[in-house]
Amino acid sequence: MRMLGRATAFVRRFLDAVLIALILVVLFGVILGKVVPLTGRQTIIVGGGSMEPAVPIGAAIVVAPVAAADLHVGDVGSLRAGKDRALFTHRIVEVLQRADGTWVRTKGDANASPDPTPVPAGDIVGRVQVTIPIAGYLIALLSIPTGVLFLIGLAATLLAAVWLLESLELDDVDRDRAASRGDDDRVAGLGEPISVRSAAPALATSGGYVPVRLTIAEQIARSRETRKRRDLWQAGTQERPDLAGD
């Protein structure tokens, strides 16, 4: 029984830790997706592997706006290029000063060659400040209703399991306490019910009567006498006796 109780406590503590970790992870995802943009930065999910291993696929990156004069070779920036103005993140390998302004040439760390054409510095959304692997999957999950429902259901399941295991632990504690009280009663009463011995001193101190310990034979005789008087009273052969002194 004790081994089972310890196993239950261990599983309950483990589920507690998992539930707390889940809550912290969700809060972290909410901060990345909702709070960071309020600071003037952007949180972007990386959907390609052109910058691995520096920026792995599925990572979340935080980019901050940067002036063209502050761009340097080696910076990792997110920029929009092409006819569809797709957003991608590459490293700056060359900064070009032209008559119409600053241009940059970029390259993915995992690509064999630089990007085909340079882009104006104005197309750069921002410079990468923080890279958080895997966090992009979490933000994507929180951005769809089914993902939110999944996380809520998972948290509710963990909470129900923790509550059930905690109830089992409390039941085990109550049984142990009841068994302990039973042992104490048997020791204190030397094999007799504790109520027989504890009630008399309490009444004696309150002025009710002087504690008397009856033998088994005396208890049986008194019970028979009480039943006899009750039968006579019910039969109407005598008036009801005053039992206040019994």
Give a verbal description of the structure.
This protein is rod-shaped. It has a seven-stranded antiparallel sheet with strand order 1-2-7-3-4-5-6. The chain has 246 residues and is of the alpha+beta class. It is built from five helices and seven strands; from the N terminus they run αβββββββαααα. The protein has three domains: 1-39 and 144-189; 40-133, Umud Fragment, subunit A (Ribbon); 194-235. Strand 4 and strand 5 form a beta hairpin. 48% of the residues lie in helices and 19% in strands.
Query: What about the largest sheet?
Result: 7 strands, antiparallel
The number of strands is: 7
CATH topology of the largest domain: Umud Fragment, subunit A
**Radius of gyration using CA atoms only:** 41 Å
Q: Count of helical segments? A: 5
CATH class of the largest domain: Mainly Beta
Distance between the termini: 47 Å
The low-confidence parts are 187-200, 202-211
**Number of domain modules:** 3
- The CATH architecture of the largest domain can be given as Ribbon
Q: Say which CATH homologous superfamily of the largest domain is assigned.
A: Umud Fragment, subunit A
Quick one: overall form?
A: rod-shaped
Summarize the helix and strand pattern as letters.
HEEEEEEEHHHH
Helix content: 40-55%
Strand order of the biggest β-sheet: 1-2-7-3-4-5-6
**Overall pLDDT, averaged?**
79
Strand composition percent: 15-25%
Overall SS class: alpha+beta
